[in-house]
Write a structure and sequence with these properties.
The structure is a homodimer.
Chain A lengths: L1 H8 L6 H8 L4 E6 L5 H16 L3 E6 L4 H13 L4 E5 L5 H10 L3 E4 L9 E4 L1 H14 L5 E6 L5 H16 L9 E4 L3 H12 L7 E4 L2 H13 L9 E6 L12 E5 L1 H17 L7 E4 L1 E4 L9
Parallel strand pairs in A: 1-2, 1-3, 3-4, 4-5, 5-11, 6-7, 6-8, 8-9, 9-10
Antiparallel strand pairs in A: 10-12
Helix pairs in contact in A: 3-10, 6-7, 8-9
The structure holds a DNA duplex.
Chain lengths: 300, 300
Amino acid sequence: MRVLKAMEQTNFLPNAMARNLAKNKSYLLGVMIPDVKNTVLDDLIHGINHVSELYGYNTMLSLTSGMLENELHYFNKFREIQADGIILASDYLKENLITNIKQTNIPCILVGRDRSDAIPSVHIDNITAAYEAVTYLIQQGHRKIGMLRLRNEDIASGYHRYQGYAQALTEAGITINGDWVIECGVSVEDGMMAMRKICETTDIPTAIFCATDRIAIGAINYLYERGLSVPDDISIYGFDGIDMASIIRPKLSTVKYSATEIGMTAARNLIKLIKGETITPRHWVIPHYLKNRESVRLLK
Amino acid sequence: MRVLKAMEQTNFLPNAMARNLAKNKSYLLGVMIPDVKNTVLDDLIHGINHVSELYGYNTMLSLTSGMLENELHYFNKFREIQADGIILASDYLKENLITNIKQTNIPCILVGRDRSDAIPSVHIDNITAAYEAVTYLIQQGHRKIGMLRLRNEDIASGYHRYQGYAQALTEAGITINGDWVIECGVSVEDGMMAMRKICETTDIPTAIFCATDRIAIGAINYLYERGLSVPDDISIYGFDGIDMASIIRPKLSTVKYSATEIGMTAARNLIKLIKGETITPRHWVIPHYLKNRESVRLLK
DNA sequence: CAAAGCCAGGAAAACGCTTTCCTTGATTTA
DNA sequence: TAAATCAAGGAAAGCGTTTTCCTGGCTTTG
């Protein structure tokens, strides 16, 4: 009692390392993220940090560049440092890591990768979202619809967005034109290059569905430089709802969702998991909605 | 020897907590940053992470929202967790924290705040950069030049950018029109609102120097909505050189510098400091340059 | 008033590693 | 061959906490 008071007065700071060692608990959450240079992921971090802070946890951020070897590396780092749990925002997710996670049975939540089985996850319904966006384009009278899709089939969200696109087209009785489906990196420049490829086809589509807003912004940018008008010549649809989407001209129509909310539910449930609570459901899907703005034209 | 081999085989992971406790070294770098929703800071994080990774350090990121109480809070958190050193990206920096840092004498590097005395720092020369940008505007024939400046005088970089602006004007024999200097938050929306205030003045300036690119983008956005043309009606100059600056139309003229490099030198020197090396100089200024694009018009 | 029950405070063990010290067996040298 | 040198492995102490256990003094109860 008295000794405690003395501690207060000398503004003594306990050694967290020693405490963690003794308690066998680190109050540390490992967070793996491909990149911070991405508005969506920024929001995700905010969400995660917010609730982990709330529960007295610290977060440790690792940038994986979406590469498996880095993920493996940091996974072990997190284990070494005795992280209580891990949030893994990974699109490129080989089974390798999955089994790794399972056999160490460290609490873990997957983010952004839907339809995953073994490990709890939180994500949006990419297939449905893409389906709705492309269906909207069809409703606006478009039938020649291309897609700037993510490059690697291993990228789950990218693949699902393509699936939704394909599904919407086939359902409308439209056959997919392979020339109009371009694989594309994630940067604005990648979007520009991909759009160029589309413009080089003999028959140019009237609308393009883009896998991300950054790609869409790149596409718009390229079209502008080429002297083509969006949406008069070509309509563009984005995905993610980043803030720049409402700033560029024309304002970008896009699929919007709250990455902050993804982050929050991920952190919230990871902490439950850590506490040993059983969480149900094991997969959360965060709502999305279409934000239709100016970049799509009604084709009569 | 044999026991080591056995460890390898059972893929044993050492407990970093125990190791750190025993060695009295955490290989942890605490990083305090106002916000991640800012391209500049993203680059900064990349730079820091890159070199800390190189030297075998882990980084722990804390978001302070630029608030002193949070900085104090995380500062103690970092001490508790035995961080080997701290990188503090703080604009709003009361002496309070400074003395705190000094008396605990934990290795620490300041980022983004120039002209600081006590603690080693890395930053750009905001005053000169702003001076050069505004001087460029003057050279282009502008004399009615406003500024969208950061709100709080405690925000060092914001204040210095204003100083550079003021200096350029006075040197050119132009008196500052208070109606054209608007205090402004950091978001795109803030930029829009501030620009509106400028437009409501009876005499509208021909050029606006903006404290950040995001503000500049907001300004351009507002002018577009109001039916005014950039640069025909009003010229806009930004600051930071974020990637969106070259994407929006018109392409934004701006002061560019490498935040990545800031982060890298900060981390590099923090680690030196931790190792007990004496670092000299104690303040590094990272170069900047003007990136003149389309948003400024030549006034004859 | 004595025996039983409590509570607070102190001592000791444990957490998993590093570091230091010491032993033991091997190698070198005269 | 015996003494001196060396290297490697094992034992023990220490890092700063938490947790468990124990003791001694205090309060309660019959």
